[in-house]
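In response to a reviewer's request, we include the raw inputs and outputs for one of the modeled complexes. The two entities were modeled together in a single run.
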Amino acid sequence: MLLNQFLILSAVLFSIGVYGVLTRRNGVMVLMSIELILNSVNINLVAFAAFREAIPGEVFALFVIAVAAAEVGVGLAMVLLLYRNRRNIDLAEIDSMKG
Amino acid sequence: MIQILAASLSPLPSIPLGITQEGNWFLQNAWLIPLIPALSFIGILFFGKRLPRGGAELGVAALLIVFLLSICTGFAWMDHRDNFHGEEISQVLTTGEHGEHGEHGEHGEHGEHGEHGEHGEHGEPSLAVVNTTTWFITGGVEFSVGTLVDGPAVMMLFVVTLVSLLVHIYSTDYVAGDRRYTHFFAFLSLFSASMLLLVISENTLQLLVSWELVGLCSFALIGHWWEEKENSNAALKAFLTNRVGDMGLLIGVTILFFASGKMIPDSFGSFSIATTNALASSGLLPHTTLLIAACCLMAAVMSKSGQFFLHTWLPDAMAGPTPVSALIHAATMVVAGVFMIARLYGVFFEGFSIGGSSINLMALVGGFTTLVGACLAFVQRDIKKVLAYSTISQLGYMVMALGVGAWTAAMFHLFTHAFFKACLFLGSGSVAHSVHSFDMKSDMGGLRKVMPHTFRTFIIGSIALAGLPPFAGFWSKDEILVGTGGWGIMGGTGGNGSYTFMLVMGMITAALTAAYMTRCVYLTFFGEFRGHGDPHESGPRITVPLWILAVLAIFAGFLNLPKGFQLVPESLQERFGHYVEPVAGYFPKISHATPSWSLAIISTIVVVTGIAVAWNYYFVKVEKASKESGQSLTELPDGLTTRLVIARMGHTLLVNKYYLDHLYTGIITRAVKEPIAELAYRSNQEILDRTVDTFGRTAVKVGQFNYNKIDQTVVDGFVNASGRISSDSGEELRKIQSGKVQSYAAILFAAATILAGLLIVIV
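The model returned the following structure tokens for the whole complex.
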């Protein structure tokens, strides 16, 4: 079995995700990019689990999916609230925590 | 009957400690008792000012709860003492490199078994209930904290909680309207907590901590009215004098820690009171070590319990509010030293070789203090100072009793003294509350008519202190005199040694005590009122505690009727001794003197003589003189009393002179007493006080140098520099805090990348 393809795929996905998180100004897009990062990790976990024929990796991936769902729920709720309060979900304009 | 745990199984020798971990709920959970007043302290401190009664209700409620708990603990202990047959804990001893000591251990153990027959005289063994938990572990040594509940602890719990509760109730009236009312009750609570912690301490370290805590509370409460320089000076004097003794305590505890550690396998040292005592009592610790440790601890006793020559702080401590004097400087804190001797009695008994000797340091210090204190009480004008010197004298009595091996007698005297002395102090407070002064000669007199409750309770307290049968003081004092064992000629034998010298000192003090209390009562309550204003009886919150204490001052003595007292059935004799005196591995085997009728009768005659001499002087001659001078000055129909007023107010000096005259020309003891008292007072004031003052002044100079040179430049420099560094770096770092979530994410990913790179490089 070829592990490299999976790892390259996951690295590419991860990089796209990071790029998205850092550059997108739309809150929803940032959340989607975070999903990409998490899923790249999932691919890594499942790939190694299959490669080493060890079940814990897959179990872990399941946990990551569950946590990602919860995270996206919270994230979308925040974005929704931001929109309600400011009619705008541009992350660059949210800097009220400036020190 | 008693299974010796691990002792018979282990190849190493071991000694029984006389403690157990089983027992009634109350005995195992005695830690609750100091905890509740401690919580009340915190509660009063934070919420006291917002409560309707300024926090006093919290303090009273807490003390009421712990008083009830203490009573339950007391009954639980009585049941435990009579009916407990559980497992006893033993201490395994080391052998090998301390082969010599190991052999001693072997010997000691055999001795223990061999002497089991002796328990016949001492009664069934009583196992103290121990409950410990780890405090902290450092350097491989485990420091534990816990409770050791046995007879003396239970007795002290009862005394402390009762007196403290009554003082709390009394104070709600006495310090009413004070500007630091809440603060006062907070410290009363903290004091109760510390004192209760002290009496149930399981180890010497805990004892030391609570010892310092009660000292701190004493300092804070003496200086309660610190705006007056005199009061804050008195507080400082008390604190600093106690520091001298505390050094002794620290050194003594350290010596005992290492000494007992040598006997225990794989151990550095032991703070456990039971272990230390058991090792000392069974002769396993070297005598020289014990002697040095006992001398160091004795210094602590001398400062805390006001023994000559570190007693000078105690009369000054009367600058505090009267309830504080009653609680701290008469009934409880000052007996901490006596209690500490009783707690570590194994160390003292072996260290000073109390058994079979006829003089030792402890008995001598106690005996001397009791005489010096009693003499000084004669020359005081201040009613509280009379009582303060009397307290010194009675504490000397207790230390002397412990010094001659009369352990139970000392504890019993502590018990009865707490009641009648608290009663007297609170009575003097009631008087002062009414006449707004403590000066007996210029502001009191004739108060028996206007303050009937205070007068009656004060009389009861005085008789109990003087030691007339059947009041409480008689029984405890008589037991101490018997315990000296110096009465071998006419029965009353079997003490630990023949301390005839101490017996004589005790007898003289008994006569002096009776005489100065007669003087005090006359000056306060008889004659005619010499002060200003309109004295009145105090309210019920003052008189009720007085009556409770007075009743105890009458009846507390019946708790320990002497053995062989033919008037009562045997089941009522020596109840106090039976329940309070430990018969256990951690307590030395002391022998008990047989009471004798002849000694009791002679000591009563001595007391009556003391009263009679003072009576003859005050109630007969002074009255007569006042009457004569009064006649020449007033013509009011109800002559005697009115004439006395003028005699009093016009001729205070004359009366004083007359008083001196009488002392010089009277009976021999009375003739020499005054100069001795004056001399002692002078040396007290001029030599001892001056030394203390010089020390104080030097300390101030050192402090000033310290402040100017070290504190201002070095310490402040450090502090300022660290402050500047953090503020500057903060100024720089705040630039990163843009508030934009994506710049944070960028930093996060950059950091993660760097760390990942480092991981690759390193691995």
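As requested, we also summarize the result in words. The CA atoms of residues 39 and 295 of chain B lie 36 Å apart. The mean pLDDT of chain B is 80.
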